[in-house]
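Run log, item B.
One chain of 843 residues. Sequence copied directly from the ordering sheet:
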Amino acid sequence: MKTMRGHPIPVARLVGVVLTLGLATPGAAAPAPPARAPAPSLRAEVREGYLRLFERWKSLPLPDITGKPRVRVLLQGMPPRRGAVMVPSNAWPLSDRGHLLEEDAGRFTVLLDSWKTASFIRRPSPSDAVAYTAASHQPLDLTTEIRELLQAPEKGGFRPSPGAMTDPVYYAYLAHRQRLTGVDALLQRAEQMKGRFPGEPKDAIEMWHGRRARTLLWSAAVDIRSGRPWEEARVQSLFIKEHFATSLAGVQAAELALELARAEQEEAQPVASPPIEALLGDLRRQRGDVGLAAPDTEPFPADSPAGRVLALGLEAAPHLLRLLDDTRLTRMVALSPTGAHVVRRRDVAIRILEHLAARTFLPRTGGLGTVTPTVASAARAWWESVQARGERATLSAGVTTGADRVYQARRLIARYPLDALPPLERAIGEAVAPLRLELIQELAALPEARGLLFRLLREPVAGTRLTAARALLEQGDLSGVYAVLEALQTLAPETAEAEPDSEPVEEGALDAYLQLSEFVAETGEEWAQEAAFRALEKAPANARATFLDSLSEATSPPSRIFALALDDRRHIWEYYFEQRGVELPAPRVCDVAAVHLARTLQDAAEPEPRASLVERDAEIERVRAAWRREAGLPAGAPLGRRPAPSPAAPRLVRLLAAGGGDAARRPVLALAAAAVPALRRAADAPATSAGATERLMGVWREIANRVAAVEVSGVPSGHAAATLVQGWRGRAVDLRGIAQLLVGVARQTWPEVGGCEVILDRPLDGTGVRVSVVFAPGASDPDEGAGVLSVRTMLPGKDGVEASVEVWPLPDVERTLTAKLQPHLQDPRRDFVCVLNARRASD
């Protein structure tokens, strides 16, 4: 519902002028996207090179697919492709596209895109011992596949999965074999695909040859992960080794084939007799995904081979340390856009050790991590410490030193709660944010830490108090809520700025209001929420509005607080808010409150989105009245009424239309809004001459465009900028004066002001223009939208019109305002709201 609005043109210096205008017209067609430039024709020598590659592939010992139908294999009743439990050895996690080689009533055979020949039984019986319950194939049109590949976005790049359809060279090969058109277009697409993986050759044709090998190796790795017999992956690896020997994948396949041969031999050997050895040997069956989990998160499911080893606890540690040099395979495979990596037993062992130690051994710098000598040495040093000092002392030392203090604290509290407080108190005293706050939060799980948390509540740093309060609240103690309320009441407005979604930080936090009040909103204690709302009376309007948003997300939102907020008419700086899917221009705290309050009521719809603030005020009063009815309260004071028409107005307006001069003009101006109905009728009368209409419209414009009220927030009342704005009261809207204010902000005339938002609101009733100016503090980021003026006018039933101007000669800003606003100021028949937004320019 809320986000911070950005600015259309970021600039960094006081430079020339750029004017950008945009008008959104309902029903207008969107501009057509620019046509893609035609690809350059394929050079003859390049085409010949690819054709020679196709002949190499055609000569491979594979079934002939010339004239064979293209199909997709469909299997029913397949077991899950991923998970901790090994699926039957005949499962097929295959690339499901290929060419139908032969078929009969009972079975069919397909050469898959992974270049594996596979036979499928249409209706297998239990004696067939296959993992699926039914098999069929669906015809594919290769021409359609080629067209889809060519129309796909190019930015995706190559992926080695056989079913990814990102290999234009392979599809060009298929088109060449089937004598279809599109070969050159596919090869052109291949030439345009930029970027190489590490180790790929510079020659493009050899690169695509190697990528085909990478795809085949990916398929072998997926077979391993899915529980297919080791022999099948070994045969595939030997095929890659023999026919793609010069590629990187060919070298990797040769190494993998040796490990697969070891896995086959081990599979045939009897199970080891000692239980621990049997469990470790069973790691070859470990399946699932692999990653770098946090040390306090179990890295493997409990019912998996690795999970059963993990359940042994520290008893398994010395045996796992022996596996840190073990390169034997598991059935875990890490798939990435660059290829497939079969996880070794040492990779599983180090992850189990990390969980047992509650600390990280593998570097968290990207990738899966590798068991280097440094990693193995760190793991062995931890175990030596545990043997020499015991787990309790090792964890206590880890709380006060090292990079894993939070994980160590968590494990210490879980295993040795009676000994956890002294090292934690020492660590908190030495640490700085954000680590200090994380350690304080861990005290929530330690009832013995309540005294320490009470002491932390008295610290002057808002982030420390807030975190201690959270910890106490988790223990069921509301003492922290009182401390947070006290902090809210004593917080100086100039030290806080609304920045939603940021984490608690130490002293100097600009978003302290938001963090403290959001905590109170989460407590669910309505007495505390109301106290926080009242404490936010002098806070920035953003803080109060965001607090209301937080309250609206509760299971039972506090309607009374929303009703209290209906009287807060402050505008919210750069705040996005929607009503019924329509963005609300220049939202105020009361607008936000009215929407949230209406959603808590049974007989009140959300307020209608209105441009005019006067109309919005009427909607707010309607919601307030509905709330009072549901709460059993008196109806309250009646809504304010628009000025009643003056009985003298028709006569004075007739004199004005007849050319009565100042003698008629001054009395009509004195009547102000009371003369507007008569002016409207006379100006719209068919019998009124053009000259008379112009005289009437001139006076009507003077009445409508007079500044009736001025509100200033964000700076003290005696501030020079506030004095400038207050001087507009009672005068006609002064576009030059507004331009001077905006340029003054952009040029840092007042260093303590970082930006301003000017809202001009003119209702239809002729009561004049209401001006609201919200100043942002000088701490506003000068690099975001620096020195940019945005003009937005909202008209009933129309979309916004925006203009943006770089900083800034004053005449240019004045011309922009005149061009955008004068047409609306000239037509008093219409109401409008205009939002002008400026930020200071950077140096």
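Observations after the first pass:
- The CA atoms of residues 744 and 750 lie 7 Å apart.
- The mean pLDDT is 80.
Flagged for discussion on Thursday.
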